[in-house]
């Protein structure tokens, strides 16, 4: 059974068709890269998977459960895009990571020794221990993303969804996040991550999905990066004699 199973999902925002009959199956223990231009439906797909958006048609199953049940069980960790977060909210880095433990704490949300230990370990893994008591908005872009990854680690989520975690981050944070995602997948977690950084994709992902409101391609990273496939997703020109190694340079601005 696939960890993430999306079947025939269609999402509309009024007259705008955001996702059109999307079907996608992601196995456990793998990092899957989600590639597409701005407006291709990547964020909508993430929000549909975690039940923040209700589809007009189709369904999502996570480890055989509906998304709401999976969320209640703490199976899903979500790293949103930066613009979806209020960075002025008065919480520390440690508070943000502790949020991943709320599902185990009961109504009063009193942290137990096991919760504090899980948070400390997660902070250490993302190299933010020294900044644990700093207000979250005072961190750099890369450090903020690492804090949200730590939240998912502390939660013990078996499914991690990351929406553009490398946008605006420094190289150190990018390398740290890539390493952590590979480690988590090796330990059995399922990772679905959207990214504009095509050059880093072979190091990051085991497979790739090209999305333009529909799934255009799902397979190996090498195949996804062929100019003919990228042209379908980004509207780029690909000459018939282009080699697999001559993939167009798709920057974040271009995407």
List its traits.
single chain; 255 residues; alpha/beta; 2 domains; 3-stranded antiparallel beta sheet; 9 helices; 9 strands; disordered C terminus
Any idea what the radius of gyration is? 18 Å
End-to-end CA span: 33 Å
CATH homologous superfamily assignment of the largest domain: P-loop containing nucleotide triphosphate hydrolases
Order of helices and strands: EEEHEHEHHHEHEHEEHH
Please tell me the total number of domains.
2
Q: Return the CATH class of the largest domain.
A: Alpha Beta
Please give the largest β-sheet.
6 strands, mixed
Q: What's the average pLDDT?
A: 87
State the helical fraction.
25-40%
Strand order of the largest sheet: 5-6-7-3-8-9
Contiguous runs where pLDDT drops below 50 for at least 5 residues: 238-255
CATH architecture title of the largest domain: 3-Layer(aba) Sandwich
CATH topology of the largest domain: Rossmann fold
What does this protein structure show overall?
The protein has 255 residues and is of the alpha/beta class. It has two domains: 1-75 and 159-169 and 186-255, Rossmann fold (3-Layer(aba) Sandwich), CATH 3.40.50.300; 87-157, no CATH class. It is built from nine helices and nine strands. It has helices at 42-49, 67-72, 93-98, 113-125, 141-155, 171-186, 201-204, 221-224, 227-234; strands at residues 4-13, 16-26, 31-35, 57-62, 76-79, 159-163, 190-194, 207-211, 215-219. The strands form two sheets. Strands 5-6-7-3-8-9 form a six-stranded mixed beta sheet, sandwiched between helices. The protein has a three-stranded antiparallel beta sheet with strand order 2-1-4, with helices on one face. α5 packs parallel to α6. The radius of gyration is 18 Å and the shape is globular. It starts with a strand and ends in a 21-residue tail after the last helix.
């Amino acid at each position: 059974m696939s960890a993430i199973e999306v079947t025939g999902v269609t999402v509309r925002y009024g007259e705008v068709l955001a996702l059109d009959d999307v079907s996608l199956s992601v196995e456990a223990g793998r990092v899957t890269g989600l590639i597409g231009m701005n407006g291709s439906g990547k964020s909508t797909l993430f929000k549909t998977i975690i039940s923040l958006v209700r589809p007009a048609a189709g369904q999502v199953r996570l480890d055989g459960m509906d998304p709401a049940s999976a969320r209640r069980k703490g199976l899903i960790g979500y790293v949103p895009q930066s613009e979806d977060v209020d960075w002025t909210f008065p919480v520390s880095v440690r508070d943000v990571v502790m949020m991943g433990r709320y599902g185990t704490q009961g109504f009063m949300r009193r942290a137990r020794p096991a919760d504090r230990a899980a948070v400390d370990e997660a902070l250490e893994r993302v190299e933010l221990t020294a900044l644990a008591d700093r207000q979250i908005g005072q961190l750099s872009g890369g450090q903020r993303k690492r804090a949200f990854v730590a939240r998912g680690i502390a939660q013990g989520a078996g499914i991690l969804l990351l929406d553009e975690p490398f946008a605006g981050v420094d190289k150190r944070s990018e390398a740290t996040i890539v390493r952590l995602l590979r480690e988590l997948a090796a330990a059995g977690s399922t990772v679905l991550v959207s990214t504009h950084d095509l050059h880093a994709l072979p190091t990051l992902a085991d497979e790739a999905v090209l999305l333009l409101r529909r799934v255009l391609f799902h397979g190996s990273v090498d195949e996804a990066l062929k100019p003919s496939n990228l042209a379908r997703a980004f509207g780029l020109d690909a000459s018939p004699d282009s080699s697999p190694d001559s993939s167009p340079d798709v920057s974040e601005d271009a995407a």
